Amino acid sequence: MRIDVVSIFPEYLSPLELSLIGKARQTGLLDLHVHDLRSWATDRHRTVDDAPLGGGAGMVMRPEPWAAALAAVREAGRGSLEEPEAVPHLLVPSPAGVPFTQAMAHDLAGEAWLAFACGRYEGIDERVLEAAAEQGPVTPVSLGDYVLNGGEVAVLAVVEAVARLLPGVLGNPESVVEESHAPATGGLLEAPVYTRPATWEGRSAPEVLLSGHHAKVAAWRREQSLRRTADRRPDLLEQLDPAQVTRADRAVLADLGWESGDSGVRRPG
């Protein structure tokens, strides 16, 4: 996968050289390029922003350097991918974007080329996104219902979430199968985890995890997953596919006061 990131703070993306993502870059699983937007500014001050039309607080990122930067990214990427018609899927971190989810991460992991436009100040002139959408797919994306100073933090999160799903990035591919939000779990939160020692500072790990009985361990983890999801993210329970809700699940949900049936799972009351 090729990834291009355009930012006025390219050094902000240096953590992508670390850990498993850094290793994926070294082994060629991830071809990541970070670009300084100011390289496409045309004045001696390397200006990339201006006052918002219509008035208001803050500054808006100008369209000219962004248009030039994205055109250069498209040209460079086409050369590396050896596909004359290739275009990146442009992702624009924004509090006004669609929510980034594990399902989206899985979809993006299946693409060959992603590009990120890191906005700052009040954001990027909307005409940049309109023009980019004429060249290829554009998706404004949000990490959550809060505002950051810029898109770089979001890029770090999205790139890590996507890259870890690429074949070969994780040492054990089973690691992504039963984790929180994984399709195999129906999108539930992962159960609590424990390691040695079995007893620590007077606190003992659940005995079932020491039993060696794989079916009982799996049943315990499923129950704990349901209970944790009901406590922390009850909205996820309502999204469960009824076909994935077992008789044992229904017993746990009933104990929690939830209703479940062929039509789905409903909150208490």
TrEMBL record:
Residues 1-239 form the tRNA methyltransferase TRMD/TRM10-type domain. S-adenosyl-L-methionine binds at residues 119, 143-148. Its main location: cytoplasm. It is found in: Cytoplasm. Belongs to the RNA methyltransferase TrmD family. Specifically methylates guanosine-37 in various tRNAs. HAMAP family: TrmD. This is tRNA (guanine-N(1)-)-methyltransferase. It comes from Quadrisphaera setariae. The lineage of its organism: Bacteria, Bacillati, Actinomycetota, Actinomycetes, Kineosporiales.
